[in-house]
Here is the input.
Amino acid sequence: MLELIPFLLERLGIMIILAFILAQWGPTRRLLRQPEAGWQFRVLVLFFATYGILSNYTGVKVDLAEFLPHAWLEEVDGTSAIANTRTMIVVISGLLAGPLGGLMTGLIVGVHRYSLGGFTAFACALSTVIAGGVSGLLRPYWRDRLGSQALLPVCLTAFLMLFEMSLILLFARPFDAAVELVQFIFLPMTLINVLGVWLFLSIIRLAAREEETVRAREAERSLHIADLTLPHLTRGLHIHTAEAVAEILLQQTRAEAVSLTDQSVILAHLGIGSDHHQAGSHWTTKPTEHVLQDGQVRLVTERLDIGCPVTDCPLQAGIIAPLIVGETTIGTLKVYYPHAELLDAVEVELIEGLAKLFSTQLALGNAQRQADLLKDAEIRALEAQIHPHFLFNAINT
Here is the structure.
């Protein structure tokens, strides 16, 4: 009985590698938070269905207390059965994709298992379909109501393995062969499937937590930069404030150069390339013109795309984001890097977010200045009314 475990562990190792690959896929993380009937849902079901079929093909063939660890199973005859990680797969599918996803995966994998034959084919197929549906129905409890997320999947998998063995005893004939088979495979299959579910879901949870940690760290950095730039940008976008903001960004990001422009000239440029990209001169890069025209972020990954007329310009890649107040693009934020490899998704998202925060700060400063002008106008209007009143009183006296 226990000699079956090493061969099942070998199969489980392949599945765990696939789990790691799946955990790096963005839609998996989104489905973990909230299932949705989109293309991600269909791809996830297809992935698990293929996963389950591979588990059927690569299982360990068991024939009356003997096992034959073939590399690929195409058919099971007589009193033979398959020991594999099929239950693990449909349980994970149900917990990730919900009732419909679990049921669809269980149905596809179960029908395929039935097509392979063997005296346990019907019992295994039926248990696979039921396992997928039950796992999907328990998804809300796993996500929302249990303090330990590992408790429900582990207990559920153990129960479903016991349920599968019960169906084998109920439907498989001859009965003596079914009893002998259950005694041989129950403990190893239960241990491997429980371990597989725990490892699989742990990998996905760790990947999701890592993503959340990165987002939280970048959000904190964005707010820190916004806090540093707020006193400057609320005074408006001009040479002095632009230089102060560029200096802050150069210190707080991985950029090699930072530039801010208005609609016609460079207001500040600090870092590499500052010898010819000078404040007060007209911007010369084509992407800047495009951003000012359509208000869309531009990623520049090659020197030719930047379009600098200086042949030895060190600027090789960058992000150009619009600064928008109201519905007008009043300038650009340009962050440059020496190599395109530094333009990862985190850095791009950070710069885009900062450009939006800067636009909001500029709008707040503009609104404050408008409010101050309005107050001055009201005071002057009041003075204009007061002066004739006192003059009339003086004349009258």
Strands lie at 60-63, 67-68, 80-83, 257-261, 266-271, 298-300, 317-325, 328-337.
